[in-house]
Amino acid sequence: MPRILEVIRDRHSARGSFDPGCPVTKPELKLILEAAQWAPTPSNMQNFEIVIVDDKTQLEALGKIPAEMSEDFLRENYAQLSFSEAELSIKKTGMLASTFPPAWTNPEAWSPDSDATSQLTFLGVSVRETPLLLVVLYDGNKRAPGSEGDPLGHMGLGCVLENMWLISESLGIGFHVLTVFSDGPVEKQVKSVLHVAPHMKIAFACSLGHPLDPPASYVRVRRDLEDFVHHNQFGRKDIMWKTQRPRNGRGVAG
Ligand SMILES: Cc1cc2nc3c(=O)[nH]c(=O)nc-3n(C[C@H](O)[C@H](O)[C@H](O)COP(=O)(O)O)c2cc1C
């Protein structure tokens, strides 16, 4: 298998704690930023800025920002959940419910009559003891040429994300995407802590570090090629590769 595909398949979300005694080094960080630098963007507009946050006081200030999950998020996220590894292996999409706080996996907890505080967390829960955060910004007043609503610009930001994630994986650095940073009220407070200009928007943040524990073995699922590949016409499924079989562990079924 080409090395690049190995890295692509091994890349994973590092949701555990990072070792505060073993931060990402400056040369490693530079490589990660170079991976962002060389990401493809529409018309090569390079529509991103990256704020490195490694100052303890700044990290603590961010950690104290309250993050209340909207009912829309909780409901839509709930639709992606499986409640057992067997269910996830059959569905081949979505995530295990056990990845999330219990209150997010119980629709009764977010009914209007229930105690809403169960949905309230703080960024500190996501940021934990992270020694390094990268906050990726874009100019909300610009767009990729001819791209109404700027989906192309957002695809470019996705390329930045993937480039940084893949090189981190190849360096043995844990990487966790945090989209909550771009959520309305949270974004406002993060921008205030980081002194971000009003016209700039937060695309996403990511926390990076050397995981304290080896990644726990868990079922990672992906749809089979036959599920999403069509041949010459949508719905035509006459391309047959060997069906991939699910297996436990960090690697994708195969
Ligand atoms: C655009 C984007 C946003 C994401 N946002 C979050 C997030 O806010 N929190 C989180 O824990 N994971 C987030 N993820 C990670 C996905 O949940 C994860 O990639 C997916 O479940 C597949 O798992 P894997 O990364 O371990 O292969 C995000 C991924 C992408 C590409």
Task: Characterise this structure.
Helices cover 33% and strands 15% of the residues. By secondary structure, it is α+β, with helices and mostly antiparallel strands. The chain has a single domain (3-228), classed as NADH Oxidase, CATH 3.40.109.10. The strands form three sheets. It has a four-stranded antiparallel β-sheet with strand order 1-6-8-7, with helices on both faces. The chain has a two-stranded antiparallel ribbon with strand order 2-5. The chain is globular. The protein binds flavin mononucleotide (FMN). Flavin mononucleotide (FMN) is lined by residues 12-13, 15, 95, 177-180, 220. Flavin mononucleotide binds at residues 12-13, 15, 95, 177-180, 220.
Helical fraction equals: 25-40%
Spatial arrangement of strands, main beta sheet = 1-6-8-7
| Low confidence ranges | 248-254
Mean pLDDT level: 89
